[in-house]
Design a protein that fits this description.
The complex is a heterodimer.
Chain A lengths: L23 H18 L1 H37 L5 E6 L17 H10 L3 E16 L2 E10 L2 H6 L3 E4 L4 H6 L3 E4 L1 H8 L8 E4 L2 E9 L4 E2 L3 E2 L3 E5 H9 L6 E6 L5 H15 L10 E5 H44 L1 H10 L3 H38 L7 H28 L2 H6 L2
Parallel strand pairs in A: 3-10, 5-7
Antiparallel strand pairs in A: 1-11, 1-12, 2-3, 2-6, 2-11, 4-7, 5-10, 6-7, 8-9
Chain B lengths: L7 H8 L5 E10 L6 E11 L4 E5 L6 H8 L7 E6 L2 E2 L5 H11 E4 L11 H12 L3 H14 L15 H13 L5 E5 L7 H17 L3 E5 L3 H4 L4 E6 L2 E6 L9
The chains are: A alpha+beta, B alpha/beta.
């Protein structure tokens, strides 16, 4: 060995660094940079990889948001029936039970008895409903005819914007006067002032004495303003042909317990309908709140089922990520070898692939959220439900997609980290 | 190793007279039982700091296995391996990786650059693992590219570079961390003779002017002629070591 031909020994000669841990924060920062580069280089593949997550997240969030909106709409619609309102109908449960004779309708005397004998009742309004075509000049319009009493306006807290309600005398006489909703005005009278005009309702000539304030959509998707209100006697005499009453609406005084009033009415009607102690009620007293709760319950059940299905698609999306990551690890074996030879420790390679999976799935989650927002904005008007942005479900879906990345990215990343640098470098 | 922090001075004194690399009785066996293959049968080798060593020998003679062990990519089955006076044959996987990161640079026959990745990003890669900030990474990587004469090509991907240029980028990547040792595995194997000479001149220059110890595996005597020391392998043993070579280097 000829010392002169060789450079002088480096005076800063130091022993190898004591083997030390890799700085965690540094590691994450480094790997995020690498992951971002990798995704940028394979845009198409990255998009296809996260398609499952995108679809999963967007369908979950869309379903839940629309479901919440629908439930909310249902609640609003039911409560639009009126606060502290009880509806009394013959039959058992919703509609009529199968078999057996039809339970009788109510009599006008039942209505009077409720108003007279039950405490805490603000208004009792019988209702006799029919429908028919209204004609005015060349215009005609098919609408709902609701026969009731003056108390209906109080019970519903719904009064004319123009004109007046029928007088006690008109009600008693069953005169052909009517208070009409704004939809009827718009379709029948257009721009003419309807007050004082007469129009034909089926075969009855009817005078408009009032126009109700606009209420908009209500009930169960029906148009509340598409209605003609008349004295009940007029409807019974001219359209239904009997004195029977299908429906009684009871408004309870503010601050009075509706449940107490409800059971008092049940007791009274059992007595009036001569039901024995062992007989079931052949009528129902619904609290609108109960209906609201039932409807909300049905909506949340449907929402959770649909969401469950959507969540499965999210899971499938996660498996899609694992597939592509495994392929990617195999395809990039040589790259992994290079990184290991250059001095990457196993953990760094693991982190790189894991971070790549997580960044991908988070990206999928974000795109999914945006897509869900667009989908909700487009679909909600068709379903006629309000858009209720729910930060909780958005955050949850996003975190879930990130978790998919961690769970399904781990195995491929672990495989990558286990590679032997020599074999990896030889890999073709 | 644990005493390195406090006993640093003493270690320096102790290692001052030692070779950079010392192999003693290195053996390597692949497989188990009847299928076992003894790739190395007891290799003794000292490599001095600043040397330019060519490793030659027919396939299966153990030269690649030795290079893998010297590059801390593989561990010997037996024997001692001292690097800067420290035992490295006992280091675990992560410790070897950290040692490669700090002290070693690799150049391969097949270049092994990351595809779809610019020359600059390729050269930056080892710095990324050393945790250098972005600005310094870029600075050092541009410096290394300048050293191999490819400063103008920094934003080209391997697909846009010739074989010779790709190997230059690989060399830039290997020297960007200022390693003690550059390990080159048939660096000219995929290049024509003109490009090969250019690469060898580059390695000779790095060896002479930057003081990087170069260990190179080659089949070609023409390339080995650039080395100062030539180690000949045969059947898992060192057959012969020629010192004080370098017919062409001075030119």
């Amino acid at each position: 060995m000829n010392a002169e031909t060789m450079p002088a020994v480096d005076p800063t000669l130091v022993p190898p660094d004591p083997p030390k841990g890799v700085n965690g924060v540094q590691l994450v920062l480094t790997t995020v940079v690498l992951a971002a580069r990798q995704i940028r280089r394979h845009l198409m593949r990255s998009f296809l990889t996260i398609l499952g997550i995108i679809i999963g997240v967007s369908s979950v969030v869309t379903m839940v948001t629309l479901g919440n909106g629908a439930a909310q709409a249902a609640r609003e619609q039911v409560s639009a029936l009126g606060a502290n309102i009880l509806q009394i109908r013959p039959g058992q449960g919703f509609g009529r039970g199968g078999g057996g004779p039809q339970p009788p309708d109510f009599k006008p005397e039942d209505v009077e008895a409720i108003g007279r004998q039950i405490a805490g009742v603000k208004a009792v309004a019988p209702q006799a409903q029919s429908s028919g075509i209204a004609v005015y000049n060349a215009a005609n319009w098919s609408t709902t005819i609701n026969g009731t009493t003056r108390q209906y306006f109080t019970a519903q807290n719904w009064f004319p914007a123009q004109g007046r309600i029928f007088s006690g005398a008109e009600e008693q006489a069953g005169k052909a006067v009517c208070v009409i909703g704004s939809t009827v005005v718009a379709n029948l009278f257009r721009d003419t002032d309807p007050i004082g005009k007469r129009f034909r309702l089926r075969d009855l000539s009817c005078e408009v004495i009032g126009v109700l304030t606009t209420r908009g959509q209500g009930g169960f998707g029906n148009d509340q303003d598409d209605v003609v209100l008349m004295p009940i006697k007029a409807v019974q005499r001219r359209f239904t042909g009997s004195r029977d009453i299908r429906n009684i609406m009871v408004a309870v005084d503010d601050g009075v317990d509706t449940a107490g009033v409800q059971s008092a009415i049940e007791d009274l009607l059992r007595e009036r309908r001569k039901l024995g102690p062992n007989e079931d009620n052949d009528f129902n007293v619904f609290d609108t709140k109960q209906i609201s709760d039932t409807v909300t319950g049905i909506y949340s059940l449907v929402t959770s089922i649909v969401t469950g299905v959507a969540a499965i698609s999210l899971l499938v999306g996660g498996i899609g990520i694992m597939n592509i990551m495994l392929v990617s690890v195999t395809e990039r074996t040589r790259e992994i070898g290079i990184r290991l030879a250059i001095g990457a420790v196993g953990r760094e390679v693991l982190m790189q692939f894991l971070v790549e999976a997580v960044v991908l799935s988070c990206l999928g989650g974000l795109i999914g959220l945006v897509l869900a927002a667009v989908a909700v904005a487009v679909i909600a008007p068709f379903m006629q439900v309000p858009v209720l942005f729910d930060p909780k479900i958005n955050l949850l879906a996003f975190l879930f997609s990130a978790a998919m990345g961690v769970i399904f990215g781990f195995f491929p990343a672990w495989r990558a980290a286990q590679l032997n640098p020599i074999d990896a470098l030889r890999h073709e | 190793m644990a005493a390195a922090g406090s006993g640093g001075r003493a270690a320096i004194v102790a290692s001052a007279g030692q070779p950079l690399i010392r192999l003693r009785g290195i053996t390597k066996r692949y497989g188990e039982g009847a299928a076992a293959f003894q790739a190395l049968k007891g290799v003794d080798l000292d490599i001095q700091r600043g040397d330019f060593v060519a490793v030659m020998g027919p396939s299966g003679s153990g030269k690649s296995t030795t290079m893998n062990i010297l590059g801390c990519l593989d561990v010997p089955s037996g024997g001692e391996f001292l690097f800067r006076g420290h035992h490295v044959e006992t280091l675990d996987r992560d410790q070897r990786a950290l040692l490669r990161r700090r002290y070693l640079g690799f150049v391969f026959q097949g270049f092994n650059l990351l595809s779809r990745t610019t020359a600059l990003e390729n050269v930056e890669l080892p710095l990324l693992y050393r945790g250098e900030p972005a600005k310094r990474r870029r600075e050092l990587a541009m410096g290394a590219l300048d050293k191999v004469g490819l400063k103008e090509w920094w934003d080209h991907t391997p697909a846009e570079l010739s074989g010779g240029q790709q190997q230059r980028v690989a060399i830039a990547r290997a020297i960007v961390t200022h390693p003690d040792v550059l390990l080159a595995d048939e660096p000219t194997g995929n290049l024509d003779s003109e490009r090969s000479v250019e690469i060898m001149e580059l390695l000779t220059d790095l060896n002479g002017n930057s003081g990087i110890t170069v260990l190179m595996v080659t089949h070609e005597p023409d390339m080995a002629a650039f080395a100062r020391t030539v180690v000949h392998f045969k059947d898992g043993l060192i057959e012969r070591i020629d010192h004080g070579m370098r017919a062409k280097a001075g030119a």
